[in-house]
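Hi R.,

Here are the chain sequences for the assembly we discussed:
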Amino acid sequence: MVIIMDFSALQAVREKNPLIHCITNYVTVNDCANILLACGASPIMAEDVHEMEEIASAASGLLINIGTITEDKLESILLAGKTANENSRPVILDPVGAGATAFRLGIVKEILQSIHIDVIKGNSAEICALVNENERTAHGVDAGESVRSLSETTDVAAMLCRDTGAVVMVTGETDIITDGSKAIYVKNGHPFLSKITGSGCMLGALTAAYYGAQPSLEAAASAAVCMGYAGELAYARMTEKHGGSGTFRVFLIDAVNQMTAEMLERGAKLDV
Amino acid sequence: MVIIMDFSALQAVREKNPLIHCITNYVTVNDCANILLACGASPIMAEDVHEMEEIASAASGLLINIGTITEDKLESILLAGKTANENSRPVILDPVGAGATAFRLGIVKEILQSIHIDVIKGNSAEICALVNENERTAHGVDAGESVRSLSETTDVAAMLCRDTGAVVMVTGETDIITDGSKAIYVKNGHPFLSKITGSGCMLGALTAAYYGAQPSLEAAASAAVCMGYAGELAYARMTEKHGGSGTFRVFLIDAVNQMTAEMLERGAKLDV
Amino acid sequence: MVIIMDFSALQAVREKNPLIHCITNYVTVNDCANILLACGASPIMAEDVHEMEEIASAASGLLINIGTITEDKLESILLAGKTANENSRPVILDPVGAGATAFRLGIVKEILQSIHIDVIKGNSAEICALVNENERTAHGVDAGESVRSLSETTDVAAMLCRDTGAVVMVTGETDIITDGSKAIYVKNGHPFLSKITGSGCMLGALTAAYYGAQPSLEAAASAAVCMGYAGELAYARMTEKHGGSGTFRVFLIDAVNQMTAEMLERGAKLDV
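And here is the predicted structure of the full complex:
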């Protein structure tokens, strides 16, 4: 079966140059800024509570990444999110490590209760941790369970869609992007993406850019295709002399920078 | 007309290895540290108020960059600046986003009222935002106005020189470096510099190194030539395989690392 | 004399994939994360006091790097360290700039009094600053003294071993790794390592990975050989076109990523 998907979000980013307000972690913040510039968007990192309203209302989208979250940033996150909501700017949440500590899960739940999130992107452990306790019991969903079929993970993601009204992206060997009724499966990617820091955070930023320029399920899925396919291209460019994870990271950003909608169409490995 | 400029600041940095104390943003802090090392200076990043006096007095220069400023850092900035002033160490200010929010403008005004700044480097919007309100009205300077001729921008920069006693560098397609009486125009650069994060911050750091080693208008202008020409060289080195913004960033740091005064003389595109 | 050293820690990291909890500085945090992934370990950066116990007990080792330390992080560091101690997880301390300010020395002394440290890694100035005041006077050790023979530095390091019960690594042209009774000297390395930021911090992270997977003097020494030899390999790969400090940094991470125990055996320059 040939699956037709609309990759026009890539071009929409290049044309609209959306400004993405990022409140993110200090490990990969430079990577996030560079991937946003590479794809045609513009980053602005800001987190003092006194400028959240001005910046969040000026931006085309808000990325919240809790990778090195501390309690004192929560007030800024909530104010930026509230402002983005009021101005109909999409909010993308990357709940890094939500399944790892009670503190992070608590932070994410407070965010989800206070702000409407448009896209939640996480790995299977993170997404499962966020699903409503009652539903999890009712459906036997156990966040601690590490092996779950693609179909089961899709069900969990769909629950989170219903709980939150968000598009949910679950990353893994196959990425799942769903709005609760329709699901797109993206099989692009390369194991080397896990040998550098920031692959996941950069996908969150890319999703904010694509969704900020064109708020649709296919835009979010396009971001997943772009990052995964860029990983494949980066790996293919490596040689004996220019090999290793340092080079891979450089080639990955190059590939996102050079990507076109035609390349995505040609390279996408999709399923529905 | 042949313009003769003194590029000896580059060699002075290599010989004196100035230690630059940086209080900067977490997005591009790694880039700033690497560009300082690449040009022959040494970086020290420190921001706890308890060590500001020891570090600022030991360093050859202080770089203040407000890229991700939060209110709690202001005390450290002011103490470091005061210490640098008392010890006759040059202070370089990069007022990132000063025109974007009232909070940032307020922070910068408090800095300018409390510390003598030796060099202020910013883009046109940032520099215009800093010009004294009264003068702005008197001269019809409107920070919100986006199109301003080179001559008008030079006038605004000169006002800021008079307000503050600082050398002012306005970055753009043509960089303006002025002390209020003399202006040097630098036409080096490449559009690709805007496809990576940190170009502007790295120029601020480079200016701190050059000015820290040799406090003069020409030293500041040399830093602008160096960064712009390095961008040209980095772009020229790109190939189909080693192209894209990831590679450009690597080549940019390489070019600053390999730059010589002779290369600056040959590559400089100047106007006065 | 042929020195036989056991480099199996490299393979142990690849097999065990140790999770290293890092509380580190924001200048080189991205480099630390990437070097951990490059060598086969996994990084987790976290610093909110509310999640220190969960994360430090889940991790295989804790890295404390005070490169941009602020007072408000001390509580988290002490709690993470105490948790690591209670769970018999090794703690690696990188006392960046301990000799530079009274504030940093005070922080490090408080850490050493509160936590058992397994490995302390620093340059000569940092290590000498940590040696107990009384012993320093008794043995005439002067932290301010910049020229000290290898044998004298080994004596200072051995004092710190006795004071703290830690393995001590003193970096320099020759690295010294000692537990107070045995000393291993590592002569690998390249001057270019000082032209990029993060060489020292990355060695601290690598040591945490190696020692986390295999807690032994030889594991710590293997990390020093790996970083030094990777620097030699990275330099050797440079060409006119791919030269400069930007490229060196990429090749350095590549070399750590591609390193094998056989390469370490072949490349090690050791003395005892």
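Chain B has a mean pLDDT of 94. The interface with chain C takes residues 26, 29-30, 33-34, 37-38, 43-48, 50-51, 54-55, 58, 237, 249-258 of chain B (CB under 8 Å).

Let me know if anything looks off.

Best,
T.
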